[in-house]
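Protocol step 4 of 6: structure prediction from sequence.
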Amino acid sequence: MDPETERYFKEIEEKIDLAYKIANDARSRCMDPSPKVEALPAGDLASRVEGLVGPEGIASKIKELGRENLPRIIGDILGDISMISRKEQEQRIDQALRTSLAIITEGVVAAPIEGISKVSIKSNPDGSEYLSVYFAGPIRSAGGTAQGLAVLIADYLRRRVGLQEYRPTKDELERYVEEIKIYNDRVSRLQYLPSDDDIREIINNLPVCVDGDPTEKREVSIHRDLQRVETNRIRGGMCLVIAEGIAQKARKLMRYSQELGLGWDWLSKLVRCKEKKDTRESTGLMSEVVGGRPIFAAPSAKGGFRLRYGRDRSSGIAAKSIHPATMILLESFIATGTQVKVEHPGKGCIITECDSIEGPIVKLKDGSVLRVENREQAEFIKDEVDEILFLGDMLITYGDFLQTNTTLLPAGYCEEWWRLEADNRGVKLPEKILDAKEAIEISRKYDIPLHPRYTYHWDDITLADLEILVEWLSNAKIEDRLIVENNNPEGKRILEFLGVPHRVDNNLIIIEEYLPLIYPLGSDLEKLKSDIKKVKNKEENPVKFLNTISPIKIRAKSGTYIGARMGRPEKAKERKMQPPVHSLFPIGEAGGSERNINQASERGSVSVEVARYECPRCGNVTIFPTCPNCNETTILRRVCPSCNLVSDSDVCPRCRVNTRFYERRDLDLRQIWKNAIEKLGFSGEVKGVKGMISHYKIPEPLEKGILRAKNDVFVFKDGTIRFDATDAPLTHFRPREINVSVEKLRELGYEKDYLGNELVDEEQIIELKVQDIILPMNGADYLLRVTKFIDELLVRFYGLNSFYNAKSKEDLLGHLVVGLAPHTSAGITGRIIGFTRASVCYAHPFWHAGKRRNADGDEDSIMLILDTLLNFSRKYLPEERGGK
């Protein structure tokens, strides 16, 4: 690691340490559910896995053996199972499966905790024992490949323990078919829906039973009340694992099964079926079209987006780039960050700008055709456009095809291909080709194909079209331009399909750039017409034919056209609960429909379910971790819901029912509200919640809600304040683009541009550091308000010094945030270095990947690090599965 990078990471670590020091100092006042910071720093993979699912000591084993050596890690967890009970076997299999899944998913998603509810050893009709794994909805966060691998590992565990294979009955088989179809049609659209026969093939061959907890209220209609299926309700986790895990990822699972020696050869049939299904004409693109969200190009339609392989500084990890002029001409339905569903590679993506690829070709209302080459030109002519003839290039990385297991498709002829052909012939070319004449001269002199800019879309027309065009052009006049009478609508339309720029003047069509059109046709048009007539199949595109007569080589310009439709708009907005609240403080129905705490306090007391804290010194029963009477740290007690006996036992000694940490009782809200106001010195209109949904039902201090309301920020269910923004990758930037001065960037450690030159100008291109992010403008404004809340919280509530002291959004530069994706258990530290007008959060691809995210159109949360450390509590998290 070079010294500059070492300094960068050391600076981030020092800022993290400082934030933890301040937060732990505040937490030590015992005014929060825990006296210590609950968002713990996650180390390497091994430490994360042990912290997430255990078992204790597994981190050292992972470090010793390496994450690739899963069989030995599993063996270490299972130990000697020959002399243990069935229950102990289930526990060890459960632990090994969760630990394996945590290793596969990098120890950052919730799937190993909540995606697997339990494992069970059951009996087949013949009395043999098999393994059943119960999956739950949060298994989705693992991703399709990891879902399938979980079943693969379960089979490996089954063999290690010596269990037999699962043998489904006919009714069980049909239950899977019915249930998966209902889930897809009535609950949630699956990314991949296998056929009925494919589902039967999977279940018949799976050596373990893929089961699941009921996740939906909807029930199956036909195959009900089966002996080995414990519910008639839909099991969402099972449906996800079968469809998106095993069926969709069959090819990958085949490779892994061979490595583990499991012999899942039956997957090969699934792979063939999936490939056959994938080659049908774009079945998914035009389905689920939402009203009001346009279709930009039908599947493989001529004039749609042209596939171009490559990557610019804001594409990759699923993000794809188009020309900014195209965005404007599509009436800004597409902006940076807009999610678009594409025909190939076949999944959603966000769109970003790239002005160095080919832009659109349009027909104006007067009949003229022109290339639109920049944003300014598009703005100038957008009201005069009659038709978009060609949408321009869509820049797609090879990695997107590889990641989605999609076959590479033919690309159209482009500048980088042209230069490679020249390089292969040892030709040194000028940096910029001046005009069509120079392009033709280079092509003739060096025997390389015509430059792509001056190559028209010959592969978009037929030989029959060419015949019409040649007949029409036979009557043209050529001086310093080509002039032909506008008396042939078919010929004019063919010119438009070719993408030949021309203008219409009265009844004449004038082509300034005529040489690239005439040269490929050869010098003898009469002979050309005669040769075309001899061709039997006139529906072929004429590229091959032209190369037999043209004095210069012509390549196919169009390649592959990609259909696309709009998915979701880009997003950059504060995260709010529904309805928005300032405080996680319960007030029942007393606050009305708006959950107004001020209004509720006027009623005096409210009846709610809240935690039971007892003061060991004075015996006071309270809802706070610190006794309001004597300032002693209180103790959280358990209560029997049946007889109200208070104890520290999980089970009531009197009733033998499970005890809870909370009880329903009357709170003197008027007094609690008055005390909070007296402590802060001011009030506010504060909105709370009807009730707590956590396991403990510990309310937040009301002071936090008053301070949030004052600064117009809102709390999320875990106690943090979040801003959501669409994920967008970025590897390089200019200071001007992120609205930050060169001087400030130098302070932040950006002293040189990507070429190694000293940074002195706002137009220089700089490589983005891996943990730096660029916030949307409105996100910066919101986080600025959060800093004011944090500073007031430190001073007025905790009695500490303020930290941020920010007056403007520029004061946020250099401060740390936490990026967090839904259904993950580990946030990623980021550093703010700039601001964008786009509704996205730009960050290095590594940063997004650290959250286990790509740029397929989803948004993640951004939180100030000190807000996360001060206010996040596990004890606020929802009790139900998926809440943690």
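Step 5 (inspection) to follow. The chain has five domains: 3-8+720-731+768-876, 46-278, 295-411, 418-558, 597-710.
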